[in-house]
Automatic annotation (TrEMBL):
The protein's name: TetR family transcriptional regulator
DNA-binding interval(s): 24-43
Pfam families attached to this UniProt entry: TetR_C_31, TetR_N
KW Cytoplasm (keyword) present: no
Residues covered by the HTH tetR-type domain: 1-61
Highest taxon listed in the record's lineage: Bacteria
UniProt keywords, alphabetically: DNA-binding
Gene Ontology terms, MF aspect: DNA-binding transcription factor activity; transcription cis-regulatory region binding
InterPro entries, sorted: Homeodomain-like_sf, HTH-type_TetR-like_transc_reg, HTH_TetR, TetR_C_31
Keyword DNA-binding annotated: yes
UniProt organism field: Actinocatenispora comari
């Protein structure tokens, strides 16, 4: 493994152990087993390295989740509410293994206002995440604007559920809870 990869691994380790704001360049260099100068050489700054490590971690989580959910809805042609529940069961199961990743992302939300370049990179990643979430939950459409709206709904639900789960996993909603809540909300919308 070269210095560039070692730095990414070291930065990821530091993000998970110390968080974004408390990680120093020295922490990363030590974890990676490289010199401080290697950070500047390969990434330009500690922040750029941390951003790259976080982006890689998010992509890896997304890839693992997509792979685990690839068969959702395929067994017996399951769709609708059953597909929704299966997908959320997979998402919720993934949280236990990725708690540090989500904690760092919530920490970064506070930094986005003061860091325009980070906010910009998150905004770009968010657009793709919305399209992927719409597909994961079976709301595929040729209308990209509609897919983005539906993906934003799922993203808002995901962020909210993750926030509740980070505070108290035992009291966070389950997949059946989410399914039943969606049904209740949809019934209220169609009743009027």
């Amino acid at each position: 493994m070269g210095n560039r990869d070692a730095l990414l691994d070291g930065a990821t380790q530091c993000l998970y152990e110390k968080g974004y704001a408390r990680t120093t360049a020295r922490d990363i260099a030590t974890a990676a087993g490289v010199s401080l100068a290697a950070i500047g050489y390969h990434y330009g700054s500690k922040e750029a390295l941390l951003d790259a490590a976080l982006q890689r971690a998010i992509e890896e989580w997304g890839d693992r989740l997509a792979a685990s959910l690839a068969t959702v809805g395929e067994a017996g042609g399951t769709g609708g509410a059953a597909r929704f529940e299966q997908a959320w069961a997979g998402v919720l199961a993934s949280l236990a293994d990725s708690r540090p990743l989500w904690a760092v992302q919530f920490e970064l939300i506070a930094h986005l206002q003061r860091t325009p370049e980070l906010r910009h990179s998150y905004a770009e990643a968010t657009r793709q995440a919305r399209l992927e979430l719409a597909a994961i939950f079976g709301t595929e459409t040729a209308d990209e604007a509609a897919a983005l709206r539906v993906g934003a709904f799922y993203q808002a639900l995901l962020v909210g559920v993750v926030g509740l789960w980070l505070v108290d996993p035992a009291d966070a909603p389950s997949a059946p809870d989410l399914r039943d809540s969606i049904r209740t909300v949809a019934a209220g919308l169609t009743a009027g």
